[in-house]
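ok trying this again, last paste got cut off
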Amino acid sequence: MVSGAGPAGTAGERVAVAPSSLSPSRAGDFMQCPLLYRFRVIDRLPEKPSEAATRGTLVHAVLERLFDAPAAERTAPRAKALIPGQWDRLRESRPEVGELFAEDPEGERLARWLGEAERLVERWFTLEDPARLEPAERELFVEAELESGLRLRGIIDRVDVAPTGEVRIVDYKTGKAPRPEYAEGALFQMKFYALVVWRLKRVVPRRLQLVYLGSGDVLTYDPVPADLERVERKLLALWDAITQATRTGEWRPRPTKLCGWCDHRSHCPEFGGTPPPYPLPVRSATAGE
């Protein structure tokens, strides 16, 4: 967390701490841009909510709650009827999302946005039949510590377990499926989860499944131990790089076309900005342990 403006120990101060675990999102941040990782994990710079991400959160909540109903009642109309209540709960838990429609006095933008959420929920019923599913877990928090000491953690949208014991990990995406040449990047998050489950349960998930509600596609992959071992090696190398950057304070920006969507350009040297003072102790790259 970012340090407060006052001296150490004053009320309200939040002391910065070094990263101690890795999630798929934060691993993705570092691979995209190390400086973005620093801004999010160490400086904890605020970010504005986006309509797309907030809609994704809303749709995920609806799909999770639908399984509270008996199988025969898991219908598209019932799922759509959950949207207003879940939107109210989201605004209560995260008041900042209300800013998205602050300049929408007639409610037209909000109505269109909620309508798109309805269409995404409806599309799910063309891809899966919730009446025939009984998830073993929903929104499951998982955490495992590797032999190296690195802690991996994340939240899995859904875990299905067959009567034979085979495990399927399912993740909902409200965007469109990537082109085939980018499928490996899309599967990274799923392989991350599979690795955590393997280390926790000593069971390799039978199938990884990405459900793309934006385009109506389903991407599946059946992992084997060698896949997950490669992911583990990649994560260990990534963590070594994060640890080195944490110690030296050298977080380099990596400009891409995604920079146009970044909330932190005013702090980024690539756009003439200056990062906030680094809040952790620094040692040179050549210093001994």
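PB: full thing came through this time. The beta strands are 21-22, 137-145, 151-161, 167-173, 207-212, 217-221.
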